């Protein structure tokens, strides 16, 4: 059988980082002490870090699928106490590390995995000693400190700010996989909304630039209506606040942007129907009030007049 030419290839920088060995590094270099050798090795890893972060964010799931040993080796180095200390020292010194703003995404995913594994371990043995990832969390908080401060100043809970910024730390991370990032963002807020009121409009105003609002609106308005029936009362309040933000924000967009959002919803439902999976969405756009949302109302009427199919998908 011929090799699949389309098979994903793990970037060489990631492989090099994963395979870097302290023992081999120490063997091929002269050091006066073990402490000096470890410090030098971590600086060596630090030099490689910028070129490892971006592919791990963009292609981490592919690396994990195609070469799990490489993926796990990278994460093990990220969890290393001495390596984490080295990164912290660089940041405290004010030294800039390329792509470090994306690192909280990896940290957030690692913490989620650690928490899941710990839950299983502790269920079997409540007295077991587990790695909590607290040093990773501290590193993530350090990287995100300026943004977290802006969120808390606006009255947003620090834990909520950290969790959502670990998913969307920068606008640039949305360029590769905005549907996945927005879905993860919403999932985290649904979870937090069980216990706390979520100031959604304030969060959105701080999270991304306005040019990214349309993809968020498209995603939320395509959410299935059946979700509402499975929510707690507090989560329902969050759900409604998201709806209100979507309509208020969509009304403020230009005519072409409003039309593009509606076209995307129509197309998404067409695709779902072709798979036999279509169902009502978050809100029937044909029932929106002309008084409250005159610009959206006008565009909905335009799309409905073009096709009965459009009416079906916007209802």
Overview of this protein structure:
The chain has 315 residues and is mainly alpha-helical. The protein is 69% helix and 0% strand. It contains 16 helices and no strands. Helix 1 (12-19) crosses helix 3, helix 3 crosses helix 5 (81-92) and helix 8 packs across helix 9 (158-165). The mean pLDDT is 94.
In a nutshell, what does this entry contain?
With 315 residues, the chain is mainly alpha-helical. It contains 16 helices and no strands.
Layout of SSEs?
Blueprint lengths: L11 H8 L2 H6 L6 H33 L1 H12 L1 H12 L10 H22 L9 H10 L1 H9 L4 H8 L8 H19 L7 H8 L5 H9 L11 H20 L2 H20 L19 H13 L1 H7 L1
Helix pairs in contact: 1-3, 1-4, 3-4, 3-5, 5-7, 6-7, 8-9, 12-13, 12-14, 14-15, 15-16
Percent of residues in helices comes to 55-70%
What gross morphology would you assign? elongated
Total E-strand runs: 0
Low-confidence runs of at least 5 consecutive residues:
none
Q: Please tell me the overall pLDDT.
A: 94
End-to-end gap: 51 Å
Which H/E pattern describes the elements? HHHHHHHHHHHHHHHH
How many H/I helices? Answer: 16
The gyration radius over C-alpha positions equals 23 Å
Largest sheet: none
Beta-strand residue percentage: under 5%
> Structural class of the helix and strand makeup?
mainly alpha
Descriptive terms for the model:
315 residues; mainly alpha
């Amino acid at each position: 059988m011929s090799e699949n030419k389309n098979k994903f290839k793990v970037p060489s920088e990631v492989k090099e980082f994963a395979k870097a060995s302290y023992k081999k590094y120490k063997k091929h270099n002269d050091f006066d002490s073990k402490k000096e050798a470890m410090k030098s090795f971590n600086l060596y890893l630090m030099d490689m870090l910028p070129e490892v972060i971006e592919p791990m964010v963009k292609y981490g799931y592919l690396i994990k699928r195609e070469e799990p040993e490489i993926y796990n080796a990278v994460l093990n180095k990220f969890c290393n106490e001495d390596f984490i200390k080295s990164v912290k020292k660089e940041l405290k010194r004010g030294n800039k590390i390329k792509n470090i703003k994306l690192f909280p995404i990896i940290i957030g995913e690692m913490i989620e995995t650690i928490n899941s594994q710990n839950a299983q371990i502790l269920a079997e043995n409540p007295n077991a000693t587990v790695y909590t990832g607290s040093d990773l969390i501290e590193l993530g908080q350090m990287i995100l400190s300026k943004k977290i401060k802006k969120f808390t100043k606006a009255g947003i809970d620090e834990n909520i700010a950290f969790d959502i910024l670990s998913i969307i730390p920068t606008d640039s991370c949305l360029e590769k996989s905005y549907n996945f990032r927005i879905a993860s963002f919403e999932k985290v807020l649904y979870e937090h909304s069980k216990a706390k009121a979520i100031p959604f409009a304030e969060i959105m105003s701080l999270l991304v630039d306005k040019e990214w609002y349309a993809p968020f609106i498209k995603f939320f308005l395509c959410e299935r209506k059946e979700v509402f029936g499975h929510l707690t009362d507090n989560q329902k309040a969050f759900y409604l606040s998201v709806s209100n933000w979507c309509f208020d924000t969509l009304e403020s967009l230009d005519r072409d942007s409003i039309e593009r959002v509606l076209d995307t919803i129509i197309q998404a439902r067409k695709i779902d129907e072709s798979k036999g999976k279509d169902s009502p969405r978050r809100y029937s756009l044909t029932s929106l009030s002309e008084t409250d949302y005159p610009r959206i109302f006008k565009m909905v009427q335009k799309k409905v007049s073009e096709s009965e199919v459009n009416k079906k998908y916007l209802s």
